[in-house]
Every structure is written in C-alpha cells, then in structure tokens.
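Model it.
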Amino acid sequence: MIFLMGYMCLKSTLRSTFLLKNNISLGFLEYLCYNKTCQLNYIGVDMANDIFRRVEKKYLLTRDDYESLMDRIWFYITEDTYFKSNISNIYYDSCDNELIINSIDKPIFKEKVRVRSYVTPKKDNDEVFLEIKRKFKGVVGKRRVKLTLKEFYDFVEKRKYKDSQIFRELHYIFDFYKLQPMMFVGYDRLSYKGKDDENLRITFDSNLRSREDDLRLELGDHGEKYFDEDMYIMEIKTLGAMPWWLVDALSELKIYPSSFSKIGKIYCKKLEVENVK
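Modeled.
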C-alpha cells in the first residue's frame, strides 16, 4: 500500500511537470474553470474540435422518480437535437486501471479517456469521438476530436494524426499511462435542453451495460446489465446555477445528487463479484 501511494504521488508529480512544461499550471487550470472570458480565449486555440466546460450533477432515479419529475418540468424543457441515442464507449486505461482507481478515490483532479459512438460504426469512414474528460474542483471539462473509425485506429495503433493541441495531449496521455482498451460501457440516452437556456442540458441514461471482451466499437453494443431493475441515471449540466423550477421540482420529490460514475460503479461491482469468488 505504501509503495502504491508513493507510485501514485510520483505519477502525479510527473503529470504536473508535463503541465508546467506546456505552460499549463494547476493555478491556470483552476482559473480557466471559473473565468468564462479566459475559457473563450483558450477554446479559440482549437475551435475545429469540441471543447466543453460545465458543472455536472448526477442523480439516480427509479422509473416513478423519472415520471414524477417529468410531470413537473416538461413545460420548461424541449427535446435536444439528438433526442434518442444509443451511446457506446470504450474506456482506455493502464494495465493496472490507474485512471479508474484514481477516479474512485475522488481526488481534486481526475481524468478519463474514451472513444465514443452514437451509432455502432460498421465502416472505416463511420464517425467516432476520441475524448479526454477531466474534473477539477467539481467543474467538468471535456475535450474531444471527431474521427473516422480508420483515423481512430491509425492514432491508437500507429500514433498517426494531424497535428493539433488535442492530439498532442492525447498522444502524451496514451504514452504516459500506456493506455489500452479496458472496458465497454453502453447505455440508452434521452436528451433534453432548456427552452429558455440552451446551455441547460438534462439527460436520462438507462439500460446501463458493460463488457470486458470484444473491446472494439464495431463489434456492437451488447453487454451485461448493471441494474436488475428499471433505473435512470440523470445528469444535469449547466454553466452556472440551476433554474428555480428545476430546484423546486427536485426538492419537492426529495431527489438528491448522487456520486455515480458509470465506469467507476461497474468496476467496483466487478471487484465485489471477484472477491465473492
């Protein structure tokens, strides 16, 4: 245990060194999370790719909770552009699952790397998204690049890519942690946005499933179900405070935030099953 803690501290120091060498201090990251003007200027470095920074809250709902909440908030929300989707993710990690173990420990800073698709890719030119998701002091930042399936494999297998800031970060992270595909996580999503505030996003994920084999998106979205009952993982994503009507509805129904990382919960359940064996 002492060795592991020392190892993690060393890795953290090396990561900080990388940030400093690239003129990205932890103080700057903190400032970036809270200063919108700075965010816009920084995002301008790589506008060709998607960059998101927002506050996210997660809630675990039963079907009754979901239906009662929708009864109260339907007037204030509308279906998002991609209302229904079947999201598939392959999470990448080190051979000893360093990223996910660190995430479970709830540190001040954590990051995840995944490739995502909204439709199962079948051909080389089908679309996927390679993402880095980071959380720093409760603020979530997601950087992603859109690729064809072939371009994705060219990167992960050959480190072949068009030079950009996001790809340089990805290249470093893949090499630093020696990342490899570790787990598939899929779910069905319903997406809403605020009628008066399109920066407000509310999503409901159900049919959470996972697998540790066939770790390629083109092999389908099958997997073992996580929940035995009909449950929803709700995520509320905002750039600031929640609107009053949403706060009132959650309070009335006694729906409270829950720390629910999909990959984290699946990993912990896997460990529990292995310990029983």
